[in-house]
Amino acid sequence: MLRLRTAQSFRQNAASNLKIRLNSIRLASVAAQYYPNEPTKPELVTETIPGPKSQQLNEELGRKFDNRATYFVADYVNSLGNYISDADGNKLLDVYCQISSIALGYNNPALIKAAKSDEMTYALIDRPALACFPSTDYKEILDEGILAAAPPGMDRVWTSLSGSDANETAYKAAFMYQHAKLRGSMDFTGDELTSVMDNKAPGASQMSILSFEKGFHGRLFGSLSTTRSKAIHKLDIPAFPWPQAPFPKLKYPLEEFEEENHLEEKRCLEEFEAIIEKDHHTPPHGIAAIIVEPVQAEGGDNHATSFFFQGLRDITLKHDILMIVDEVQTGVGASGKLWAHEHWNLTTPPDMVTFSKKFQAAGFYYSNPDLQPKQAYRQFNTWCGDPSKAIIAKTIYKEIVKHDLVNKTAEVGDYLFQNLKQLAAKYPLNFRNLRGENFGTFIAWDCNDVGARNETLLKCRAKGVNIGGCGDIAIRLRPTLTFEKKHADILVQVLEDVAKEV
After folding, report:
1. Using CA atoms, how far apart are residues 487 and 498, in angstroms rounded to an integer?
2. How many Å apart are CA 276 and CA 402, to the nearest integer?
3. 128-385 topology per CATH
4. Catalytic hit among 86, 88, 94, 326
């Protein structure tokens, strides 16, 4: 009996130890697994950033290429994990990450493996013209990656070349969809076929895409007409006379201004519907679709609550207008959800969701087959996306799932926000309107003025943190999904050191 109890005890202890080991593996630092040689802190070797070599290289490049927006010249070979290296050998903790575009960190081993695969080789050197000559494995590539990651309620995708292109092709889908409904079973008329060649109605649509004040949706012609963030983006470029609606201007902390913010969002919803009902609701004119960001990133990281977005969805359904959610910057995990609009708990999914940046690929998701035009060659270009980028997106998604990176990002975001909240209490002029609570690492705040914001960015860089701004006075965080508490501690310390100086 004693031997039996001892054997049972041994098995129980072994099972317990195995469970502990498995838990420790699951909870182990993903960054450490990927990047055992990642720097433990910023490493600075020059007195200034950019340093002399970076400045020289940038000057030489500037003779051939417009590089006036350059922060510094990067050495990607020696960048690793959450640290970007510059040409002089400085290694900076990167919480800007190619303007929100690095999901897993620099030189991620899983992505390197994918890049060296035969699958990637043929995708690169034979570059399929996907609409006419798709590869034998393209459906599989999409099914295992981009489509596996599709937002709830969506099972189709159109792939494109960039975030701007994703939005533009979504606009095209919206216009063709709405006009197809107006025609019913009729074919194109002779007048339509003739007038469109002169860029005139009825062949050229008189419908519009509604966007929101301070929104940013790209820099191509259609997407630029819906961009409202800064005048410099739009000056001298012909634009469509498309409507814009107000986006809520919330007060922070949210819990202290709940009633005021609710009234502000209600006002914006009422004005939004009034715009639709007054001037833009009668065919052949009318609003084909609206486009909205879950967070207005380039416009200043402006947030709204679920109430506002739920209201937008209700109104679009009421007026038979399509809803496009621009997740180019918010998508793929940074918000603590794979797709930021999942925070809204919509009863009906959006009609289209655009993506790019952290997925390294681009396109839009949808579910309604009627958003695919009935005739071929209408939603079309030579490449229709890039299978090599879709392979990268597939690898990124699989690594996100493997390491539970969305939930980990939510956890580290909560940790970081609480630390920043303490800084905001100590330095209220440096950390105004702190926002992004319970929204992963998609966190931002305002500085006292534009001068203080720009000085903060430069001083952070000088202390080894690469960080970005947006809007007029905002600072935004855009770290990788492998950004962890140890990185957050470094960031917070640098921000406090800078706050003492600005």
Report:
1. 17
2. 45
3. Aspartate Aminotransferase; domain 2 (3.40.640)
4. 326
pLDDT value at position 185?
A: 85
For 30-108+404-499, the fitting CATH number among 3.90.1150.10, 3.40.120.10, 3.40.50.150, 3.30.70.260 is 3.90.1150.10
Confidence at residue 15, expressed as pLDDT on a 0 to 100 scale? 45
Of all helices (H) and strands (E), which one includes residue 176?
Answer: helix 163-183
Annotated domain spans of the chain: 30-108+404-499, 128-385
What integer pLDDT is reported at residue 285 of this predicted model?
77
C-alpha angle with apex 486: 423 to 500, nearest 5 degrees?
30
Alpha helices for 184-237 (secondary structure H): 190-195, 221-226
User: Would you give the distance in Å from CA 318 to the centre of its chain?
Assistant: 28
Catalytic residue from among 216, 272, 309, 359: 216
Mean pLDDT, rounded, of the chain: 93
The token duo for 65 is 């290429």
482: annotated active-site residue: no
Number of H helices, E strands in the chain: 16, 14
Question: Is 216 considered catalytic here?
Answer: yes
357 in active site = yes
pLDDT tens figures, 369-412 = 999 999 999 999 999 999 999 999 999 999 999 999 999 999 99
- Report how far apart the first and last C-alpha atoms of the chain are (Å, whole number): 74
Cα torsion 189, 191, 196, 202: sign: negative
Q: Which amino acid is at 371?
A: L
**String of b and e for 313-325 (b: at least 16 CB within 10 Å)?**
bebbeeeebbbbb
Please indicate whether residue 421 is annotated as part of the active site.
no
Residues sharing a CB contact under 8 Å with residue 8, sequence separation 6 or more, in sequence order: none
Q: Please identify which of the residues 214, 337, 357, 459 carries the catalytic annotation.
A: 357
- On whether the CB atoms of residues 43 and 464 are closer than 8 A, the answer is yes
Containing 289, the helix (H) or strand (E) segment is strand 287-292
R_g over Cα of the chain:
25
What integer pLDDT is reported at residue 28 of this predicted model?
A: 66
Closest CA to 152 of 366, 335, 313: 366
Q: Which is nearest to 228 in space by CA: 312, 148, 151, 292?
A: 292
Cα 267–chain centre separation: 27
Question: Which member of 126, 382, 404, 426 is catalytic?
Answer: 382
Those residues with Cβ within 8 angstroms of residue 488's Cβ, 6 or more apart along the chain or in another chain:
412, 415, 416, 419
Strand order in the sheet with 474-476: 432-435, 444-446, 474-476, 468-470
pLDDT beneath 50: ranges in the chain? 1-11, 14-27
Block residue for tokens 């799932």: 401
pLDDT of residue 78: 98
Strand partners, 445: 475
Confidence at residue 5, expressed as pLDDT on a 0 to 100 scale: 43
Determine contact, residues 490/496, Cβ cutoff 8 Å. no
